[in-house]
């Protein structure tokens, strides 16, 4: 089965093992490519179960909307909201942001440090003027080397 997603309730639906024979199983694998008008190309991806989409989205927003460099975008604190209402977040948010996250749910969970629970987004980027850039997520011991 793709990506061993047999226990992921939002992909399988219901209890693990309830998938139907002969039906291709869904996957949350989501390698992402961003093509900008100036020709900049950014490729990013991560492992992380149902946290893949939130990890990729947060890094992409950091790069595109906040205009962060790729390493800063990957290293920025992340959050994740589960269907059950749990709001998990890493350290690094401002006091006001953390208070707002805690106000979202009685099930808010502040993690004591960055954790691979929040994905491990790796990024490769090409910009005509800046050249190649890369970032490996330290949450998954990632590194990037540009030669």
TrEMBL record:
UniProt key word Transferase: yes
One matching Pfam family: G_glu_transpept
InterPro entries: GGT_bact, GGT_ssub_C, Ntn_hydrolases_N
The entry's keywords: Hydrolase, Transferase, Zymogen
Leader sequence segment: none
GO molecular function: hydrolase activity; transferase activity
Family from the record: Belongs to the gamma-glutamyltransferase family.
Entry protein name: Gamma-glutamyltranspeptidase
Upper classification of the organism: Bacteria, Pseudomonadati, Pseudomonadota, Alphaproteobacteria, Hyphomicrobiales
């Amino acid at each position: 089965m793709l990506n061993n997603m047999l226990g992921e309730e939002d992909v399988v639906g219901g209890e693990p093992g309830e998938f139907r024979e002969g039906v291709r199983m869904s996957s949350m694998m989501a390698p992402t490519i961003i093509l900008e008008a100036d020709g900049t190309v950014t490729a990013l991806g991560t492992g992380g179960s149902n946290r893949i989409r939130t990890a990729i989205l947060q890094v992409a927003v950091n790069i595109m909307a906040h205009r962060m460099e790729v390493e800063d975008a990957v290293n920025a604190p992340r959050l994740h909201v589960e269907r059950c209402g749990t709001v998990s977040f890493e350290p690094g948010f401002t006091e006001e942001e953390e208070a707002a996250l805690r106000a979202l749910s009685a099930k808010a969970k502040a993690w004591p440090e960055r954790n691979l629970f929040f994905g491990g987004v790796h990024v490769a980027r090409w910009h005509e003027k800046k050249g190649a850039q890369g970032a490996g997520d330290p949450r998954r011991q990632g590194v990037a080397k540009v030669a």
